[in-house]
Amino acid sequence: MLFNIPMETLPREEIEALQLRRLQDLCARVYANVPFYRKRFNDIGITPGDIKRLDDVKLLPFTEKQDMRNNYPFGLFCAPRENIVRLHASSGTTGKATVVGYTARDLQHWAECGARSLCCAGVTPRDIVHVAYGYGLFTGGLGAHYAAERLGATVIPASGGATRRQVQLMRDFGANVLCCTPSYALHLWEAGQEVGIDFRELPLRVGVFGAEPWTEEMRRDIEQKMGIQAMNIYGLSEVMGPGVAMDCLESKTGMHLWEDFFLPEIIDPVTGESLPEGEVGELVLTTLTKEGIPLIRYRTRDLTTLDYTPCACGRTHVRIGRLRGRSDDMLIIRGVNVFPQQIEGLILEAEGLSPNYQIIVDRVDNLDTIEVQVEMNETLFSDEIRKLQALEARLRKNIKEFLGVSAKITLLSPRSIERSEGKAKRIIDKRPK
Ligand code: DLL
After folding, report:
1. Are 204 and 231 in contact (CB under 8 A)?
2. pLDDT tens, position by position, 127-172
3. Is the C-beta atom of 133 inside 6 A of ligand 1?
């Protein structure tokens, strides 16, 4: 089912014509209302009138998270403060928080993107949607909530925490859809095991999982454990929240990015040059309709690809590939680039290991070291020591062979790594800054 058939199947020329009109309007709006952008435009000698073709977006300067921080809290807002009806903010654990304001129309658009995204996952107005993303300044909870309401489904606003109770509520209320981070889905599954609830026997049919990096291996693991379709949803608070892009059931090979609202580009993260379709690079997004805090060429730091080939579902909007990681999450271990997801993939290929892991990076005698701590599942845990040692050696060998780094492997007993209610913390970097 599609939520907005005419828009989701708009032919490419029409999408691009709409994007150009909206881009021109956006440039005029920010030039008139946001001193930061006016100065940026003036500094490089362009005016909104210079945007004549869609490709002219490349004339415009990038916007970065630091620009939002430098203009904390409301400096980049493009609408009068009294027209802002909601604020969200990032946690701000490193530096100042980034603050995002939404007008009533922004919230309508966000709910539309979210409702389209839920439809991509096969969610219908008849479904009961359990939202276990955190509610609050984080966009996950309220984003999924309004998306499901817009669709006309029944929402259970559970938020994070009280995990065992949540599983009981899911059973009692007959939830069909679960929205949360993939790591929290596994935590819910474990809690189910503890209280004797088997997810495969519940009416739960689909998971709408995102907000953190995860692998195809993790998807298969969750699908098998819970007996559901595990779907990938992408979003970021600076740009909107969940629902910027979403997997569709028909292909599951990339997330449709709603191009009437966002103009995507892929660039080389080092040189800033545009990359052609299919090449991995940093996703850059321009918000075409946002009023509260529009962003021009926002550097997301997320690494992915663009795919304009037609999709089996009939939607014409571009697909972004599963995220390869954030450029700022990339570990450089003795000169070798490693993403946590690559390690996750190798862990989950090995039989007997669980998707609960942490990567500890340290520096000893001026050399970077890496330790992968990973929990065993119950079956492996009760196996003989010889088997455990063999598994440890195999994982070490695979990491060396495929990723080119020597890692220490530490197998932990089940449930020894602290569970998170939101985004899992995968990397502990102890290196001096
Ligand atoms: O995580 C918004 C969101 C909520 C998305 C619920 C999906 C579901 P932030 O806290 O600002 O917003 O974090 C955004 O999370 O730049 C990515 O690095 C990462 N991320 C989000 N979705 C995915 C995904 C929300 N599906 C940052 N796969 C983004 C991998 C993801 N990483």
Report:
1. no
2. 999 999 999 999 999 999 999 999 999 999 999 999 999 999 999 9
3. yes
Q: Give pLDDT, residue 383.
A: 84
Closest CA relative to residue 370, chosen from 429, 310, 299, 288 = 429
End-to-end CA distance of the chain: 50
User: Which protein residue has the closest C-alpha to ligand 1 atom 14?
Assistant: 236
Give the per-residue pLDDT at 195: 97
| Beta-bridge partner residues of 157 | 131
Ligand 1 centre distance from Cα of residue 145 (Å):
16
User: What order of strands is seen across the sheet that includes strand 255-257?
Assistant: 154-157, 128-131, 177-180, 206-210, 229-236, 241-247, 255-257, 319-320, 306-307
Does the beta carbon of 242 sit less than 6 angstroms from any atom of ligand 1? yes
The rounded distance, in Å, linking the Cα atoms of 197 and 170 is 10
Calpha distance 214→207 (Å, rounded): 13
Q: How far is C-alpha 239 from the geometric centre of its chain's CA atoms?
A: 12
SS3 assignment, position 400: helix
What was the pLDDT predicted at 93?
A: 61
Verify whether ligand 1 is closer than 6 Å to residue 99 (CB atom): no
Residues of the chain with pLDDT below 70 are 92-94
Q: What's the pTM?
A: 0.97
- 184-211 in b/e burial notation, b at 16+ Cβ within 10 A? bbbbbbbbbeeeebebeebebbbbbbbb
- Those residues whose C-beta lies under 8 Å from the C-beta of residue 433, and which sit 6 or more positions away, are none
> In the prediction, which pLDDT does 94 show?
63
**Treating both helix axes as pointing N-terminal to C-terminal, what angle do 385-398 and 340-349 enclose, rounded to 10 degrees?**
140
